[in-house]
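A reminder from the course coordinator: this example appears on the midterm review sheet, so study it carefully.

Given structure:
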């Protein structure tokens, strides 16, 4: 990478994302307490073109890069975790995988709806007995003439309560490649698809169980059949970077609050930030945030319209997720006992940051991959 500057267009888009996300800040507790999907915020993201940034231009989107999506999600995460999680699928992997591997009819049907904010996309990978160990998944797709039949159960699925489109990871009988793992698009109106139990989370979003009971979908809804695992995992590297961007935004949001508090709260006759012990906490936070940002920018900038490289995506995710835990914890410390109360906004950043190391591949799994990469070299 020759330079570290964003283009004028990216700076403009980032400024727009910041302006729009600031509108979400005051409403962020609404979704946490009601458990409702933030439709109001999603409409705003759609009308400003931010929600469709990852949709190719010929389907009504912005035709943006992974870096563009990372910039937008950082800004949303800075103000409202629930909205960042709501937009993650549309800005991220679901849209990209349909654009890259979907048949023309699947693209034409779903991508314009995504850009207009009319179709929310869920991704269904995790199963009750299979999380990190993808290859052990039990959901299957089998051929049935010019259709495939999808059967299985998924759990901890974001947005399933409102999703119109489900990208379902499953084993495709007879497919070539490692363990027959591939993916199929299943529309919400497909007979046999049902959304079961809802789980409330510490972050304020909800997760859901989804069942596919002999769901019959046209064969051209298969996104990846042969060599599916490799293709799906390379696509998932993009998700790792965007999960990291949300963590980055959460950390930046907490740091902004902490710096403000350190300037304004006085103890011992001076602003608390002027006590060296506290100023150094903020300095360490700043360095860690910037380091995470550079890892994310590098991984996404090199990917362009393709998919990020695994090693770089894993390093970005691992570092950003763990950084956000430390930074939000330190930010709360800056607020003292008041920070622990729900009257102060900083406590919610600490809760929000906890999601990163759980979703989309844990730190242990990232470390396993990074170590394997080193030992192979
Ligand atoms: C907010 C949120 C949103 C989510 N959204 C979605 C979604 O939309 N779609 C979806 O499919 N899933 C989703 N998930 C699920 C998430 O992807 C899984 O929770 C994650 O992959 C881990 O799987 P698991 O929970 O089954 O844990 P397990 O795989 O059972 O792991 C339990 C613990 O063991 C560790 N572990 C497991 N294997 C190893 C190993 N080989 N080496 C070292 N340690 C190991 C893990 O790191 C973890 O700490 C979401 C989760 C969260 C928290």
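Designed residues:
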């Amino acid at each position: 990478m020759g330079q570290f500057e964003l283009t004028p267009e990216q700076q403009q888009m980032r400024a727009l994302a910041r302006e729009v996300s600031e509108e979400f800040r005051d409403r962020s507790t609404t979704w946490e307490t009601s458990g409702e999907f933030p439709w109001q915020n999603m409409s705003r993201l759609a009308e400003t073109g931010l929600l469709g940034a990852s949709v190719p231009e010929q389907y009504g989107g912005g035709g943006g890069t992974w870096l563009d999506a990372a910039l937008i999600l950082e800004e949303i995460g800075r103000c409202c975790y629930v909205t960042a999680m709501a937009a993650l699928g549309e800005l991220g992997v679901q849209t990209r995988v349909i654009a890259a591997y979907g048949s023309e009819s699947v693209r034409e049907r779903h991508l314009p709806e995504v850009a207009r904010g009319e179709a929310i996309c869920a991704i269904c990978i995790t199963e009750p007995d299979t999380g990190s160990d993808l290859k052990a998944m039990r959901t299957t797709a089998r051929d049935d003439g010019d259709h495939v039949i999808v059967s299985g159960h998924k759990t901890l699925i974001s947005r399933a309560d409102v999703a119109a489109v489900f990208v379902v990871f499953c084993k495709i009988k007879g497919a070539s490649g490692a363990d027959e793992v591939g993916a199929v698009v299943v529309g919400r109106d497909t007979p046999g698809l049902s959304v079961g139990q809802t789980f409330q989370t510490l972050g304020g979003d909800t997760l859901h169980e989804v069942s596919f009971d002999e769901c019959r979908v046209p064969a051209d809804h298969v996104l990846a059949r042969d060599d599916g695992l490799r293709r799906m995992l390379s696509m998932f590297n993009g998700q790792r970077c965007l999960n990291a961007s949300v963590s980055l935004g959460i950390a930046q949001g907490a740091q902004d609050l902490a710096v403000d508090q350190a300037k304004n709260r006085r103890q011992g006759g001076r602003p608390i930030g002027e006590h060296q012990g506290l100023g150094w906490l903020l300095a360490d936070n700043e360095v860690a945030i910037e380091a995470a940002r550079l890892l994310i920018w590098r991984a996404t900038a090199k990917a362009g319209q393709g998919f990020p490289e695994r090693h770089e995506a894993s390093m970005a995710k691992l570092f950003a997720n763990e950084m956000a835990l430390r930074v939000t914890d330190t930010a709360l410390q800056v607020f003292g006992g008041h920070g622990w109360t729900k009257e102060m906004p900083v406590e919610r950043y600490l809760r929000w940051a906890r999601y990163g190391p759980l979703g989309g591949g844990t730190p242990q799994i990232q470390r396993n991959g990074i170590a394997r990469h080193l030992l192979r070299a």
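The two ends are 22 Å apart (CA to CA). The mean pLDDT is 95.
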